[in-house]
Amino acid sequence: MCTHMKKLGASRAYRDECGEFLCDGLKLLEEAVTHGADITAVIASTDLPFPLPLETRVYHAGRDLIDSISSLKNAQNILFSCRIPKKTGFLCADGTHILLDGVQDPGNVGTVIRTANAFGISAVILTNSCADPYNPKTIRASMGAIFRQRICNMSVAELATIVESGARLIGAAFGVNDIREANLKNAIIAVGSEGRGLSDEVLALCREKITIPMTPECESLNAATAAAIIMWENYRTASNI
Predict the structure, then answer these.
(1) Tens digits of per-residue pLDDT, 23-44?
(2) Is residue 92 pLDDT above 60, yes or no?
(3) Are residues 22 and 137 in the same domain?
(4) pTM recorded for the entire structure
(5) What range defines the domain where residue 210 resides?
(6) Is residue 225 exposed (0-12), middle (13-18) or buried (19+ Cβ within 10 Å)?
(7) Whether the Cβ atoms of residue 18 and residue 3 lie closer than 8 Å to each other
(8) Is residue 88 part of a domain?
(9) Minimal CA–CA distance to 10: which of 134, 113, 111?
(10) N or C: which end of the chain has fewer CB within 10 A?
């Protein structure tokens, strides 16, 4: 079990092969229980203050063992594994979606997942080698939203099929239409990485492009920051704030 959990925390390929991912901390465990995640095993160095599903395997261990398993620098007193939700068909007719194109920092991806959940985004779509949403750093940055927010990994070819079927794909790109004048409702809004922006293949699929106004000397924003502004603007206009 210890070797299995350690590999879950260290290897995306192993997570994909096993269909499980590793989490740490009491707050995340409580979120997982509350939102019905399929918890496969728990390793704890402390007593749990709430009950787990009866079928959950629970092991008690010292902090040294937990520290050796966790891939994070500051492991907490609890580690647990969950099954990765099965991929379902993507429906984009209703609601606004945020698409991350090649955003490789796990902290940024986790922050976007957390923010999307706060602002009622229907789904977070990941394409073009984004960071794994089930990387322990992504999960920690999501602050439990990983269990509440719909997430879709999608190839550019799958995205193209959706666009061809009528979905509105809006690209966040510098120097075009002001976000404050755009209709973001029922659209997929694509945000690229800080280093290169949107990829050529995703940008080519965008029927519309928007920009976030900023001072002339600033060239770009952090991807998670840009996504947060876009999601807030959509939430503000939808809620008439």
Answers:
(1) 999 999 999 999 999 999 999 9
(2) no
(3) no
(4) 0.93
(5) 97-239
(6) middle
(7) no
(8) no
(9) 134
(10) C
